Amino acid sequence: MRQRQVVTDRRRAREFEAFVAGAAGRLLHAAALLTGEPADATPRAQRLLTDALARTYADWDRLRGEDPYDRTRQELALRFARGAWHRRRGRRAGGVLAGLGPQERLVLVLRLYEGVAEEQTAALIGLPVERVRAICARAVTMMRESPTGRPAAGGTRAASGGGAGAERPAHE
After folding, report:
1. Residue 46 and residue 28 in contact, taking contact as beta carbons nearer than 8 Å
2. Strand, helix or coil at 43?
3. Cα distance between residue 38 and residue 22, in whole Å
4. How far apart (Å, rounded) are the C-alpha atoms in residues 23 and 5?
5. Which residue stretches of 36-111 are H helix?
6. Burial class for 57, CB neighbours closer than 10 Å (0-12, 13-18, 19+)
7. Are 44 and 87 in contact (CB under 8 A)?
8. Under a CB-based contact definition with an 8 Å cutoff, are residues 109 and 99 in contact?
9. CB-based contacts of 80: which residues, under 8 Å, 6+ apart?
10. Within the chain, where are the H helices?
11. 3-class DSSP state for residue 168?
C-alpha cells in the first residue's frame, strides 16, 4: 500500500511539473500585469504566482477534469484582489497599466489578456456583469486616450483632442 502511494505521489508531481512548465510563463506575465511590476523585476508577481500554484498543487487530486490553468488563474485573481483592495490602496502600479486602479487592472487582465468571458469575470470577482463591462470600457478608454499608451500617474486622464475640463476619475 505504501508503494502505491509513492507511485501516486510521483505521478502527481510529474503532472504538476509539466503543467507549471507549460503555464508558468503566461501566468507570471498576468501576475506582473496585475502587480504593475516591470518584466525584469517581479518579486510581488512571483510571490503571488507561487501562492496560487501552491493552492493548485494542494487541490491537484480534487480537480477531476477541471482545467488547472483556470483554477490557478482564478486563485491568482482572488489573491491579487484580496491583497490589492485591502492592503495597498495608496500604492501605484508601474508598467503598461500604470495609472489604472487594481480593479481596473484585474478586469483588463482577465478580460483582454486572459480572454475570460464577462460573466465569468463578474462571478470571479463578485461584481455584476454590467459593472465589469463598464470597468473594462473605462480602462480601455483610458489606455487609448494616452498618447504614450500609459494613463497619467495621478489617476486622471485628460481626454485627447484638448477638450477643457475633460478629466476622468481612475476609480469610482
Report:
1. yes
2. helix
3. 22
4. 27
5. 43-58, 68-86, 102-108
6. middle
7. no
8. no
9. 31, 34, 35, 48, 102, 106
10. 2-35, 43-58, 68-86, 102-108, 118-125, 129-145
11. strand
Is residue 48 within 8 A of residue 37, CB to CB? The reply is no
What pLDDT score does 100 carry? 85
pLDDT of residue 154: 44
Place of cell 473594462: 136
For the chain, 172 residues long, give each residue's pLDDT as a single digit of tens.
688 888 888 988 999 999 999 999 999 999 999 988 887 888 999 999 999 999 999 999 888 889 999 999 999 999 998 876 554 444 555 677 777 888 999 999 999 999 999 999 999 989 999 999 999 999 999 888 865 544 444 444 333 333 333 333 333 3
Give the span between the Cα atoms of 125 and 107, in whole angstroms: 9
Phi, psi values for residue 150, rounded to 5°: -125, 125
Cα 98 to Cα 92: distance, rounded to the nearest angstrom:
7
Specify the pLDDT at position 165. 33
d(CA 95, CA 144) in angstroms, rounded, equals 15
Q: Which residue has the cell 489604472?
A: 100
DSSP code, position 112 = I
Q: Rounded distance, CA 99 to CA 148, Å? A: 12
Amino acid at 105: R
